[in-house]
Design goal:
The complex is a heterodimer of chains A (304) and B (276). Chain A is built from 9 helices and 10 strands. Chain A has 304 residues and is of the alpha/beta class. Chain A has one domain: Rossmann fold (3-Layer(aba) Sandwich). A 6-stranded mixed β-sheet of chain A has the order 6-7-8-3-9-10, with helices on both faces. Chain A has a 4-stranded antiparallel β-sheet with strand order 2-1-4-5, covered by helices on one side. In chain A, helix 5 packs across helix 6 and helix 8 packs across helix 9. In chain B, helix 3 runs antiparallel to helix 4 and helix 4 packs across helix 6. Chain B has one domain: MetI-like fold (Orthogonal Bundle). The longest helix of chain B has 38 residues. With 276 residues, chain B is mostly helical. The chains are: A alpha/beta (304), B mainly alpha (276). At the A-B interface, strand 6, helix 4 and helix 6 of A face helix 7, helix 8 and helix 13 of B. Bound molecules: adenosine-5'-diphosphate and magnesium ion. Magnesium ion binds next to helix 2 of chain A.
């Protein structure tokens, strides 16, 4: 599918009006490979041009669980947004199963750091939300929603309201809401970062179980090395700004993995070792940019 | 219950002070009627049919005006939220109009439409539209951007986004605006009716003033307040409450305690304990 012939304004309008994929889960084709090719993303920030991603290439095979780790501000969320189609790369190309990624679509659902559930819908309607959009009949979509609530361990909570749930339960509902669409790739952007340690540990193991059951392709962003060690087949370590992939770590510990086994600790240490040098660089960089920003604003003040 | 008792005691006290002031004889009974006089004027008004007629005329006008305001206000507020240039232009006008008491339109309205219902309607609409506009605009503006992104990654079209995310998310704010708009509409109507003698409570007040019937003047005022409160209590407060409850917005002090509001409701917690 070529987009070269379509004028930019028309493309922009179409991108605004139509999602890329609205097919019912069952109609969507088999798992597909995700290819990120030489993607660069720059933002026009307050302090000038910011290069968030610099020539990043990633390939994720169907059924793989890939974790992205890196210091904060290195462009992990940016990459996820590009894959989701919420933003466009400055350079490079993103493909899913041979099709270019141009706009958001239900084949690439994102689970954000906050659950972002809709308070005016009960739990079941929240989970069924994406199915409603695709035009699925009520009985069918409720049956499906119940099935996925069961999967995340909230089988009896379909009628509950969002504000009645704890943080961990909201996370589970958000997971069910994404899984119910049977996306080709599930994108998770630090989904457990806001939870307390115990809840997070429990959800990590749940997610591992669900991945083993469903075989979803998952790209999971975290800055917690233990999370990455437990979940990932492959960990991509990002360098500090501009974000580049500086290391790739395969984790071959058999599943189901436990949180505190010696192999897990060893794997976590391997990731930490790669990450540590980056974190210090990143901190220095943050300070440098902060200072630059200070100068910039003072300069402006002087001129005023 | 305790609140109701407190309230009753308060009003009984108020009436007692009123009676005491009347009994002191400092003011002429012509100018300062007793509670008893007002009460009998109230009963007379209903018995003779003047009050029911006025209620009908006023309510009819206010309902029509309110409905027009609702549509106009939602339309303008939505346009302001959707297009920045509309907000920048119309938005400033809306703010300006809000500082102009709508009764100031009465002279113009009477010249344009003559002594007609339309003139009063204009005053009512101009008095109550802008609070709906503001509330609708604020409602749409304050939708968390994350809701929009979440819906988009699930495959929402722009129409679906509007219908299934933006409108529901803005609804609590819009309903609060409607509640405010209702009280503005009612007040503007009374002002309008005072000036244009076209029936209704406003004119009734004027008539009783001219015949120097102070007990009836006060009785009419009591009815005006009662209707304002009644509509609020029967229509708007329940609507607002139910939406807030459904949307999980707690205004109840006992619920807004941080730890409590973070904990799942007791019944759910029990189920969760069983589940795990
Ligand atoms: N919309 C934006 N406008 C300007 N700068 C942005 C924007 N989004 C992200 N950035 C910048 O890009 C860099 C990467 O951000 P992000 O992807 O959120 O990092 P991470 O998720 O790894 O913490 C940061 O320096 C951030 O300030
Ligand atoms: Mg991030």
């Amino acid at each position: 599918m070529s987009t070269l012939g379509i004028p930019a304004p028309v493309r922009r309008w179409r991108d605004a009006v139509l999602p890329q994929s609205r097919a019912l889960p069952a109609e969507r084709s088999a798992p597909a490979t995700l290819r990120v090719r030489s993607v660069t993303k720059t933002f026009h920030g307050a302090g000038g041009l910011v290069t968030a991603l610099d020539d990043v290439s990633v390939e994720v095979q169907p059924g793989e669980f890939v974790c992205l780790v890196g210091p904060s501000g290195c462009g992990k969320s940016t990459l996820l947004n590009l894959i989701a189609g919420l933003d466009h790369p400055s350079q490079g190309q993103l493909m899913l199963g041979g099709q270019a990624i141009e706009r958001p679509g239900a084949d690439r659902v994102v689970m954000f750091q906050e659950p972002a559930l809709f308070p005016w819908l009960n739990v079941r309607d929240n989970v069924a939300f994406g199915l409603t959009l695709s035009g699925m009949r009520r009985a069918q979509r409720y049956a499906r929603a119940e099935q996925y609530l069961e999967l995340v361990g909230l089988g009896q909570f379909g009628r509950a309201w969002v504000h009645e749930l704890s943080g961990g339960m909201k996370g589970r509902v958000a997971l069910a809401r994404a899984l119910v669409l049977d996306p080709r790739v599930l994108l998770m952007d630090e989904p457990f970062a806001a939870l307390d340690a115990q809840t997070r540990d429990r959800l990590l193991l749940e997610l591992q179980r669900i991945w083993l059951e469903t075989g979803k392709t998952i790209v999971f962003v975290t800055h917690n090395v233990r999370e990455a060690a437990v979940l990932a087949n492959r960990v991509l370590v990002f360098s500090a700004r501009p974000g580049r992939i500086k290391a790739e770590i395969h984790i071959d510990v058999p599943r189901p993995r436990e949180l505190k086994s010696p192999e897990m600790l060893a794997a976590a240490n391997r990731i930490s070792a790669e990450l540590e040098s980056e974190v210090t660089i990143s901190e220095e960089q943050e300070m440098a940019t902060a200072t630059a920003r200070n100068f910039a604003s003072h300069g402006l003040l002087w001129r005023l | 219950m305790v609140v109701a008792l407190k309230r009753i005691a308060f009003y009984v006290g108020l009436v007692a002070i009123w009676q005491a002031l009347y009994a002191s004889g400092r003011w002429s009974p012509m100018l300062f009627p007793s509670p008893g006089d007002v009460w009998s004027a109230l009963l007379d008004g209903f018995r003779q049919g003047t009050f029911p007629t006025a209620i009908k005329a006023s309510l009819q006008r206010v309902v029509i005006g309110f409905i027009i305001s609702f549509f106009l206000g939602v339309l303008m507020g939505t346009a302001m939220a959707r297009w920045k240039s509309v907000q920048e232009t119309l938005g400033s006008l809306v703010l300006g109009m809000q500082s102009l008491p709508s009764i100031c339109w009465a002279p113009l309205a009477l010249m344009w439409f003559g002594l007609q219902d339309t003139a009063i309607l204009l005053v009512v609409v101009l008095g109550s539209t802008f609070s709906v506009t503001e509330a609708t605009y604020a409602g749409f503006r304050n939708v968390p951007p994350l809701y929009r992104r979440a819906a988009m990654v699930m495959g929402a079209t722009q129409m679906q986004l509007l219908r299934r995310v933006l409108i529901p998310a803005a609804l609590p704010s819009i309903v609060t605006g409607l509640k405010l708009s209702w009280s503005f509409a009612w007040r503007s109507l009374m002002a309008g009716e005072l000036i244009a003698s076209l029936g209704g409570f406003g004119q009734l007040l004027q008539n009783f003033r001219e015949t120097f019937d102070m007990p009836s003047v006060v009785a009419v005022m009591v009815v005006i307040v009662a209707i304002g409160l009644l509509v609020n209590a029967v229509v708007f407060r329940p609507l607002e409450k139910s939406i807030q409850r459904r949307w999980g917005i707690t205004t109840d002090d006992r619920q807004s305690d941080y730890r409590k509001s973070r904990r799942p409701a007791a019944s759910i917690q029990r189920q969760l304990d069983i589940a795990q």
